[in-house]
Amino acid sequence: MATEPLLRARAEQVAVAISTVVVFGTAAIFVYPALYDLNLHWHLLPGGSRAFGIYTGSTIHEVAQVFAAGRSISTSTANTAVITKMVRVMMLAPFLIGLSAWLTRRAAHDRAAADATTGARLSIPWFAFAFVGMVVFNSFAPLPHVLVGPAIDLDTFLLAMAMGALGLTTHVSAIRRAGIKPLLLGAVLFVWLVCGGALINSVVAAWLH
Fold first, then answer.
1. What does the pLDDT read at residue 58?
2. Are 14 and 166 a contacting pair, CB within 8 Å?
3. Residue 40 lies inside a defined structural domain of this protein
């Protein structure tokens, strides 16, 4: 959804992408507690529940899925996992800037190849800066709880409205036309996150120690 305005994606394309996240992210909620039990015997990820929380937060797709998987293990695992996931969310801003710059450069190259005279314009993901700004603001000037609760409720409502609006602009036929390839790609990426993420986490943990 964050890359939709940069890629100028259609609503049905975004819906297919979100569907794969929901499918495999939901599967992760059940898979990761089982992986934690296996890790207790194999010790592939040293550091106990805290290290597994970092692994969970760095490899599961969505914040709610991260919390659900981590909470199935322990409260400390869930807390570590959510913090790790939020660091990933904060990295969305520089990622979108890099993606926008790359797309702009590619568009400019295509125009130059076609002898076009108009220049490419960099798309700035301002909403990502707003997110980071709110993190900084809340860190140094926390709002009173009486305001935070209603603000979170409003945020949940607006997110639900956005997801509902996306569904209203999407037809099942469009998802059907997408075929099996998005699910296959999602499966490949899910395996990479589980296996590749475990390898990267174990290497980083060994390097830090």
1. 95
2. yes
3. yes
Please report where in the chains the tokens 């499918």 appear, as a residue.
Answer: 23
Query: Per the structure block, which two tokens stand in for 124?
Result: 């700035």
Q: Is the dihedral of CA 18, 24, 30, 32 positive or negative?
A: negative
Residue 19 tokens read as: 């569907």
The type of residue at 58 is: S
Q: What integer pLDDT is reported at residue 119 of this predicted model?
A: 45
8 Å CB contact between 91 and 123: no
Give the pTM: 0.76
* Helices of type H across 43-180: 48-59, 63-71, 75-90, 92-113, 126-140, 145-168, 172-178
Q: Which long-range contacts (CB under 8 A, 24 or more apart) does 135-143 make?
A: 135/90
Domain residue limits at 70: 4-90+143-208
How far the first Cα of the chain sits from its last, in Å, is: 37
Q: How many CB atoms lie within 10 A of CB 59?
A: 25
Q: How confident is the model over 176-198, as pLDDT tens digits?
A: 777 889 889 999 999 999 999 99
Measured CA to CA, the distance from residue 167 to residue 160 in angstroms comes to 11
Q: Is residue 102 part of a domain?
A: no
Query: What are 43's two structure tokens?
Result: 């010790």
The answer to the question of residue 125 being in a domain is no
How many domains would you assign to the chain? 1
Say which residues have a Cβ less than 8 Å from residue 90's Cβ, sequence separation at least 6.
Answer: 131, 132, 135
* Among the listed residues 52, 74, 59, the one whose alpha carbon sits nearest the alpha carbon of residue 27: 59
